[in-house]
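Good morning N.,

You mentioned wanting to compare the apo and holo forms, so I went ahead and generated the holo version with cobalt (II) ion. This is what I fed in:
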Amino acid sequence: MPKYDLLFENNQKWAKRILEQKPGFFEELSQQQAPEFLWIGCSDSRVPANEIVGLMPGELFVHRNVANLVVHTDMNCLSVLQFAIDVLKVKHVIVCGHYGCGGINAALDGNSHGLIDNWLNNIRDLIHRKADELNGIDDSEQRQDRLCELNVINQVTNVARTTIVKDAWNRGQKVSIHSWVYGLSDGLIRDLGLTLSSIDDLNELNNK
Ligand code: CO
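and this is what came out, ligand included:
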């Protein structure tokens, strides 16, 4: 059987399996969604958001793009963020990068990759800002890993600097922005430790 047909077959089996475990699941879910989490991750096929955190349909609102970037002129990402915060009222925004990210590595390697270079320029700006730290790392894999982490930290601050998040905090809405990175080689998530939950948290960071 061609692989294409296999997807439909898999889907039918999947829906059947869920209904066996939770009768009425899809009917109930079709009425509303109330996820507590927004996931901003990489498009990489090896980092499937729901699966790696064990959440069911309805529990995770998801935005993915190459190298999990939050760019202030990207209407797609900003629209997802606004809907998640203003309408769904998610309590946590998780920016999750991953080690071995092709986008990050492409930004570092100095080669041309076509149109995507325009997108990757956002990472190249970060590379220039963190040149001292990155140039101080001799091992190229360790340098790539560190850039994956620095990129997540940068995107967390980008989320916090949007009018969407600042307005939410100013009206007293509780929402925290988290910095995570996923390991392709062990399937585990690390918390990078930067969590922003208020305007004060953001200002403190800006003053550093
Ligand atoms: Co990636």
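The two ends are 58 Å apart (CA to CA).

Happy to go through it together on a call whenever suits you.

Best,
F.
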